[in-house]
Design a protein that fits this description.
Layout: H1 2-18, H2 20-26, H3 32-50, H4 57-70, H5 74-83, H6 91-105, H7 107-123
Length: 124
């Protein structure tokens, strides 16, 4: 029962941050393995977001942006850059984060993140 409640909370925060359209598209594949994989991703990655604790949704969004940029996970960075406002992150905070990324993860990572942020904002 506790696992089901935790998964429900994780699903809720995933939808709140990424938006219904993104989650619906990601979970549309009816293949049982795809469904199980999406549940796994939701329980692990979004379960961390839903656990509460000292980090707010805004803080978690900034951390994910920094980590995905530093690791060169540009596709995931793009998703989270687009959803950052729903997590309570302002454009000014993302802009400042880009300087941190460039300083600590390297100029190529910061530059790539900056290009993605610019594209995401143009598309919004």
């Amino acid at each position: 029962m506790e696992e089901i409640e935790a998964l429900g909370a994780a699903r809720g925060i995933r939808r709140a941050v990424l938006g219904d359209a993104h989650v619906d598209a990601a979970t549309a594949d009816p293949d049982p393995v795809a469904v199980e994989f999406q549940d796994y991703l939701t329980a692990t990655a979004w379960g961390v977001w839903a656990r509460g604790g000292a980090l707010s949704t805004r803080d978690r969004s900034l951390v994910v942006l920094a980590m995905t940029a530093a690791l060169g996970r540009t596709e995931e960075f793009r998703v989270h850059a687009g959803s950052a406002p729903r997590a309570g992150v302002s454009d000014a905070e993302v802009d400042e984060l880009l300087f941190q990324i460039a300083a600590y993860a390297g100029v190529p990572a910061g530059s790539a993140a900056r290009r993605i942020v610019t594209e995401v904002r143009r598309q919004a």
